[in-house]
Amino acid sequence: MDPIIVRDLTRRFGQFVAVDRVSFDVREGEILGFLGSNGAGKSTTIRMLCGLLRPTAGSAVVGGIDVSRDPEGVKRRIGYMSQKFSLYEQLTVGQNIRFYAGLYGLSSGRYAERRRFVLEMAGLEGRENMLARDLPGGWRQRLALGCAILHEPPILFLDEPTGGVDPLSRRHFWRLINRLSESGVTILVTTHYLDEAEYCHRLALIHAGRLAALGTTTALKEIFAGRPIVEVQAPDAVAAMRALDAMPEVEKTSLFGTAVHAVLRAAAVPPAAVGDRLRAQGFAVRGVAAVPPSLEDVFLDVVEKAGRS
Amino acid sequence: MRRTFFMVWKELLELRQDPKLLRMLLVAPILQLGVLGYAATTDVKNVPVVVADGDRTPASHDLIERFDASPYFSIVDIVNSVDGIDVYLERGRAWMALSIPRGYGQAIGSRTPATVQVVADGSDANSTTVALGYATNLVATYAQSLVAVPTMPTPVGQGFSAVGADAAPTPVGQDFSAVGASTAPTAVGQDFSPARHLGTFDPQVRVWFNPQLESRDFMIPGVLALLLLVMTAVLGSMGIVREKELGTLEQLNVTPLGRWQLIVGKLLPYGLIGAIDVFLVVAVAVFWFQIPLRGSFLLLFAVSLVYLLGTLGLGLFVSTISNTQQQAMMTAAFFVVVPMIYLSGFVFPIENMPAVIQPLTYLIPLRYYLVIVRGIFLKGVGLETFWKEALELLVFGVAILSLAAARASKRAA
Amino acid sequence: MRKALAVGRKEFHQIVRDRRTLSILLLAPVMFLLLYGYALNFDIRHVTFAVEDRDRTVESRALIAAFVNSGYFDLVASVHDGQAIDRLMDRNEIRAALVIPERTGRAINTGQAAAVQVLINGDNANTAAAVMGYALNIVRGASSSLLVERGLRPRGARLAPPVSAEPRIWYNPELKSTLFLVPGLIAFIGMITGAVSTALSIVREKERGTWEQVRMAPLGTTPYIVGKTLPYLVISIASAMAIMLAAMALFDLPMRGSWLDLLLAVSLFLAGALGTGMFISTVSDSQLVAFQIVLIVAFLPTFILSGFIFPIGSMPVPIQMVTLVVPARYFLVALRSIVLKGISAAAMWQELMALVLYATAVLALASIRLARERG
């Protein structure tokens, strides 16, 4: 049985529906990324799966345990790390590890072994006596991750784990995640950094509490099959965008940095033609090229469709 | 159980890292007891009095001397006419005024009864009653001394009877002597006709437990109880809310740490500090203030621990119903500590409270603890006397901790 | 000034959003007022007492009746052995006891003085003295009543002493303790809410890390202080006025002075309270420490050292010196004069001056420390 099975999971706060009938499965060793803007329902979903919040309706089975019926049982089998990092600032690195190991009831032999592992993983060997509050961002992040996996849980929940951390540390962090996944740990990560989504095996796009799309990045990008995306570089991007919108072949446009992405309705129109058309209208078009769809394109498209339905 | 141990260990580590807090928690009670112990007295002394001497004879000076010599009064000024006293009373420069009318000396000389007026500022009703009593008593004693009849000092105490419309001010003596006397209460002069007469009731007063009516002996055990309440309730109220604010509570909720393990894990370290505080303040009370500790210290210590169960429990409970530290502390201060101070019988007697409120006072652990603490200090009584109160403290402690544990749910509903 | 208002507006929004704290700030005074008005006073009532009547004659029963009918004493037990009284005293179930020995009635009828024992439970020193006075009064009254009943005169005809004192009570002839407790309540609430709110508000910024933004802002220290404290000043003043109005409506508190004078006194006191809070926030790193300091420096002194409950004159001299720096002490005197005696604020200038001095000192100290912290 899959480590995480979610069916029609729902959570209401009064009239507000934070999570609306979400269903998905996560396979063993898979990294599932939850992507969505703030307030879309990502954290709420994770908290329900961890037994921190009671679902209003639906079911979730984590590690073979029904989350609604036995939240405490779930907690023995999972690791959790949140954006707050939840370390005790006034304790040292070593003391934080000791504390969490104690909470999970690790025997002294296992503790020694896991301690070594976590210190090595986080790159904190020799720094056991540093106070947690004195650690720079990237180290704290890795220490928090380490504390979450001291008891070698088969399932890991990470809620925006890379908030406020420099890109280098973020990359290092993801390498650790991948290593864990390769060793068989099932991981569910929420993030709003689109570039991090590339690290995941599959992505779930959450919008307004609903699961708007689910699949590998390749599969997701398939939504643009038959709809090429053309990137146009022109000095007056906003005006160019409006001009493109007016063209019948163009489905929609959006600004990407200083360029404009235009989604064409059909593959029939060559990108060059679009560029010519613009030049005809007096725009100094610097470049026109077909670009492969990015996750951002996918996300915007999905959100827009979800908004319409 | 091991998890509880780790919670306690973590709390102690955190405390150690905050020396300012630690110092505060250990030093503050001693400091406060020091100041409060001296300040918390309901005795009335050095009442500022302004005198309007309309007579200015040796007789009036004599009376004024008596007032000045008394430890209860302190003459701030002597003016010539009654109009002059207004200013002093209005501005609070004097609480009482003694007005001696013109012709006073003459009346005394010619053995006609003379009256002086004693005006009191009623805006401080409590002290007024007592001060007025002392003043009328001083005048009465003075009167007795003028008439040189050997009468035994009336065996009474320091109190004063109500100033009701009908009650005549009763002379009460300043010394307390438990001597019986055969003087009729109001007769102050020679006795005459051997007519058929009736005897009188002759009250012999004895004050138990506190013959000097030394309010400090009574107050300090109360202050002790009060301080412990304030410290531990506030400390407890921070316990869980701080972790909530910082985000570590969520992490704890995701681990197998049970609710009771969390509560007890907070309770033990704070209880340790509370216990040290008990030790310190009792030491100050006994060695510095010389309050007699007639009962057993061990018993006092043990009961105090049970009391702390309740006060810390209250704090922890407040912690579970608050979202920020500020909310927790203000709730603890305004809705727990201060009402307890007022409703526990510490200063204001419970008998005076309306019938609706009196049952509420049974919910206040301070009330029971005060009885026990005063009992152990002043009366030297043991468990057999106040086992009921001790039991009530225990029940309260367990109940409030259970409430806190119930609210400290690991899963939001 | 505009910047101060901006800071003030933000603070105000934060206060309003924190429903719980707001309700505490508004409800607490009401609750205390009700407590004071209805539950708390020093009057002597329902004094529990026990009787051991070994005589059981008409005379002894008359004495007991005098106690019962006085309206102050509640007879809770009529016992027959001495041990019972011991137990009742120990357990605090009685605050007084009357022991009437045998032959009391006989002694009275044969013209002798009959000794009766009046035992007072000295456990509660506050009230024991008063209870004793009442009891003695009743005993003497019982003697006189007996005489009056039987148409006899007591031994000794000259009843009038050479000098007697006529008591008069000004401003509060009925000695309603409510009237004197309410000004104290205003002081207490004002100090607590003022000091606590401001102390915590700055420390909170430090703890949460928004302090950096404050340091960076192009804002002078004075406008910052003004802006921070303004909302609390407004709330506290509103609170104080509400207490006054409620006390006037519910408990017949007379307002004999001018409202403007009252406002002035309250504002000066509150300025000091807020300044105290500010200063405390500059010496604390965490909210817990700030709160504990507020307890020691504001809460307890206002309660114990201001003359509110315990008279200052009775305290040892060193402590009296300490009370000189407790603003509540001056505030209470001024408040009572203005409210209960109708005195003008100008006449109370000495007290008001003291409040101004305190507020200035404490705000200046806070300013200096803040300026240093902001670099």
What would the keywords be for this entry?
heterotrimer, A: 309 residues, alpha/beta, 6-stranded mixed β-sheet, 4-stranded antiparallel β-sheet, B: 413 residues, 4-stranded mixed β-sheet, 57% helix, 8% strand
Tell me what portion of residues of chain B adopts beta-strand conformation. Answer: 5-15%
Tell me how many strands of chain B there are.
Answer: 5
- Please count the beta strands of chain A (DSSP E, at least 2 residues each): 14
Q: Can you give the helix content of chain A as a percent range? A: 25-40%
Gross morphology of chain A is elongated
- What are the secondary-structure elements of chain B, in order, as H or E? HHEHEHEHEHEHHHHHHH
Q: What is the CA-atom radius of gyration of chain A, in angstroms?
A: 23 Å
Kindly report the spatial arrangement of strands forming the biggest sheet of chain B. 2-1-3-4
Mean of residue pLDDT values of chain A: 89
Biggest protein-protein contact in the assembly: B-C, 144 and 132 residues
What is the assembly state of the chains in this entry?
Answer: heterotrimer
Cα-to-Cα separation, first versus last residue of chain A: 33 Å
Number of helices of chain A: 11
- Unreliable stretches of chain B (pLDDT < 50, length at least 5) are 148-196
Structural class of chain B: alpha/beta
Which of globular, elongated, flat, extended, rod-shaped describes the shape of chain B? elongated
